[in-house]
Amino acid sequence: MSRERTSRARHRRTWRGVAGVAAGVVLVGGGFAAANAATTTEKKSAAHFAVDKKATGTAAVVSAANAFLNTLDSDQQASTVLEFSQANATAWSNLPCAGTCRPGIDFGSLSDEQLAAAEHVLKVALGTGKDTGYDHVMQTILADDVLASAESTSSAAPAPSATVTDTATDAATATATATPTDAPTGAPPSGGTGGGAGGFAYGSGYYYMAFLGTPSKTGTWQLHFGGHHLAVNITFKNGKVAGASPFFSGIEPTSWTADDGTTYEPMAEFRNGMLALTGSLTTEQLAAAKLSESFGDVLLGPGSDGEFPATKEGLKVSELSPKQQKLVLAAIHPWVADVDDATAKQLMKTYAKELKDTYISYSGGTGLDTNGDYVRIDGPGVWVEFICQTGVVYRDKIHYHTVYRDHTRDYGSEFSFS
After folding, report:
1. Which of 139, 238, 330, 370 is the 20 to 30 Å CA partner of 37?
2. pLDDT tens across 216-246, in order?
3. Distance in angstroms between the alpha carbons of the first and the last residue of the chain
4. Lowest mean pLDDT among 60-69, 111-120, 167-176
């Protein structure tokens, strides 16, 4: 698609008044399987799902999911309710690859009523903490609109009104392993900034929601939501959350100020927790936590399910002071807090019990402001990674990639990857 045609398409629809969003209707394909596939080409009436406005807990998530489905026509419902299979569950990505790499219905094809209902699903299912949970997810989506607007210009401008200094390493000194992995293959469009070629597209219209399995208070199903720099996978089993991971979160730009003067920094809580932890380490502890490897991205990103290192590396948390151990838990919390508050609280209790057998490690520097800076927390259950990469659109800035996994609870423990 030419750059002019891409620009026209991108402005067909603006999501919640934020510039630079586009998406036509993208029906599920590429092998994504429907839970109740139609056996006829005749158009069917949309199914109606029960809604309980008084429901609480995970029952409220089911009710919100059903309310969203009730706003959809039959074709849209078929694109949203899919089989809870390993292929569907693991189909998530950090790339701006729209519906070619993830299942579900795209936000850009929804009416205002449908979009509000979809947002309500996220609001009920996610945590309520500042810059975490629902707040974090919605700001991440807004950031993609900033990228869409910037990418549509002829050259990359400095990141808009950045509130923190993100200094990338000079290209001549950057390690080969620290190449940004959000970048499409091949050269960017002539005069452009990268990110828009080869079917890649930024913007809040390119976020997809799917229910893998039929939402239920008794069965097993998954809320599967994501787009560029975001993958939410929450698995429900018998009315409870059985797994809140994998959860991928990234951001570019790391901060910006909107036209109304509001400043956004969606991953401030994530970064600051890691900075407080590494900043507390003594010289000896830093030496023990230092990894010999260099990293260009998170180890356990998309397509790396079950590939946890056989041996834990770094500094064992049992060797830290009680105050430092509390900083480890505080550093873990923002990722875990992207699920509902009750589930997050229970997970944090579990990770606290496992803390003495948890390890912290890092590579590069500990400032989290330079290409290749990397921090990891690896426990019996919890796995968190945070890495800095050179920006793809804002190439003179840093952007973040992170992932939260659980050694035993990914996808609700429904699949084996051995």
Report:
1. 238
2. 999 999 999 999 999 999 999 999 999 999 9
3. 41
4. 167-176
Tokens 């994504």 belong to residue: 32
CA angle 32, 34, 36 (to 5 degrees): 170
**Residue 406 CB neighbour total at 10 angstroms:** 25
What would the DSSP string read from start to end of 295-355? -SS-TT-TT-TT---SS--SEEGGGS-HHHHHHHHHHHHHHHTTS-HHHHHHHHHHHHHTG
Phi, then psi, of 211 in degrees rounded to 5: -110, 110
β partners of residue 290 = 362
Q: Which two tokens stand for residue 263?
A: 């400043």
If residue 82 lies in a helix (H) or strand (E), which one and from where to where?
A: strand 81-82
Those residues whose C-beta lies under 8 Å from the C-beta of residue 252, and which sit 6 or more positions away, are 143, 147, 182, 229, 391, 392, 393, 394, 397, 399, 400
Beta partners for 234?
A: 223
pTM for this prediction? 0.84
List of residues 6+ apart from 307 with CB closer than 8 A:
299, 300, 417
DSSP annotation of 14 reads -
- DSSP per-residue letters across 246-302: -EEEEESSS-EE-TTS-EE-TTHHHHHHHHHHHHT--HHHHHHHB-SS--SS-TT-T
Closest of 61, 25, 27, 81 to residue 210, by C-alpha: 81
